[in-house]
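G., the chain you wanted modeled:
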Amino acid sequence: MIDYLRGQLAHLETEYIVLDVQGIGYRVFCPNPYVFAGKSEETVTVYIHHHVREDAILLYGFSSREEQKLFRKLIDVSGIGPRVALGILSGGNPDTVVAAIHQENITFLTKLPGIGKKTAQRMILDLKDKLEGLGGTASLFDPVPAGASALQDSVPGWPAAREGLRALGYTDAELDQVWKNLKDQVGVDEPVDSVMKKALKLLYAG
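Predicted structure as tokens:
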């Protein structure tokens, strides 16, 4: 069972990276592959969930142990498979997802890709007492950045994506700037993970 891989970034796509480990290229599906952008000259560590099924062997990768642990907790919930769990993490960083579960914030959880009301309720029921040590104690109701309410009205997936990008270290000024280019590329019903990936692509290119 593979727990982590350490190597150089050989290729990056919107859903996965290819990690070169001593001449072998591993395709690793990630919540937000662009967090590894700009690290092609560095040796990077990717924490792995090694998923085996009848027709495929798949690698899911994360930039931190916290993400890896939360992913494994999520796939223990009935109705959440690896792809949906990956979408959850792409739509919200571990702290915000854990906080939403602790605070029983169904409104936030149902904005995540692939999560309906029943699944959100199941996540809260199954995981609320099993996430110790995974953060998420901060309130989800932080002051809303200027203009965010208008953004939410136009593209509901943007506020959650914005919060995830802020957790990655991007400033409000950077996010306000990227929105000017992003708003013409996303639709009203665009999923959070799609909005975030498009934003990361623009941030990386800029």
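The longest strand covers residues 43-53.

Shout if anything looks off.
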